[in-house]
Specification:
Elements (H helix, E strand, L loop, with lengths): L3 E6 H11 L12 H17 L3 E5 L7 H5 L12 H16 L4 E2 L6 H14 L3 E6 L12 E5 L4 E3 L1 H7 L8 H8 E2 L4 E2 L6 H11 L2 H6 L7 H4 L1
Parallel strand pairs: 1-2, 1-4, 2-3, 4-5
Antiparallel strand pairs: 5-6, 7-8
């Protein structure tokens, strides 16, 4: 049986912990809710899953390659809460104390690093689990790579991706997102095309390119535009 690597989306873990546990402070009145939630979740994951290898990836504060290419990328999102910013160094200190590798790179998001490491680990023969709440990562799922949804505490394999995206393959997730856009990242899609319609179109025509090659068969004038 292949060894297993867990890749943790540190940003996703921190936000989940911060909003799940409120008004928790130390004796000096400093916020500790995200620290407590992150540590508790990480310990539970290690205890339950017993991964052979483990790494945590974090975002950086510098502009990313996406925001440089598209100025409105995530522009609608509120800045990280100050109470969470205060706790981030302590969370990273805890991760290092456990001798767990941390990956972060200026200009790139945790997702980028996770995807890169996951594919390299797959080629090296490892089984990979990506622990995140970001549905975009489902496009990486295959026989060797699974996703642990940290919000639903649910392990997602290729079948699970199909259940989430109307029977589509993981490789087709990017086609759906290209058509529907991604409101959480402030990325517009094709006007008038929501996720359900995008899924229907990709299911019928297999890809975004297939949709454009068969616009004459697309039902509804609004969709054709």
């Amino acid at each position: 049986m292949s060894e297993q690597l867990f890749l943790i989306d540190g940003q996703s873990f921190c936000y989940r912990a911060f909003y799940a546990i409120r008004e928790l402070t130390n004796s000096r009145g400093e916020p500790t809710n995200a620290i407590y939630g992150f540590i508790t979740t990480l310990r539970k994951l290690v205890r339950d899953e017993k991964p052979d290898y483990l790494a945590v990836c974090f975002d950086r504060k510098e502009p990313t390659i996406r925001s440089q290419r598209y100025e409105a990328y995530k522009a609608h999102r509120k800045p990280m809460p100050e109470e969470l910013i205060e706790q981030m160094p302590h969370i990273k200190e805890f991760v290092r104390a456990y001798r767990i590798p941390i990956f972060e790179q200026p200009g790139y998001e945790a997702d980028d690093l996770i995807a890169t490491i996951a594919k390299k680990a797959e080629r090296a023969g490892l089984n990979v689990v990506i622990a995140t709440g970001d549905k975009d990562m489902m496009q990486l799922v295959n026989e060797k790579i699974r996703m642990l949804n940290v919000y639903q505490e649910k392990m997602i394999d290729e079948k699970g991706v199909g259940e989430r995206f109307g029977g589509l393959l993981p490789s087709q997730v990017v086609e759906v997102l290209s058509l529907a856009g991604d409101a959480s990242d402030n990325i517009p899609g094709v006007p008038g095309i929501g996720e359900n319609t995008a899924i229907d179109l990709v299911r019928e025509f297999k890809s975004l390119e297939g949709v454009y090659q068969h616009l004459d068969r697309v039902q509804g004038e609004a969709r054709k535009r």
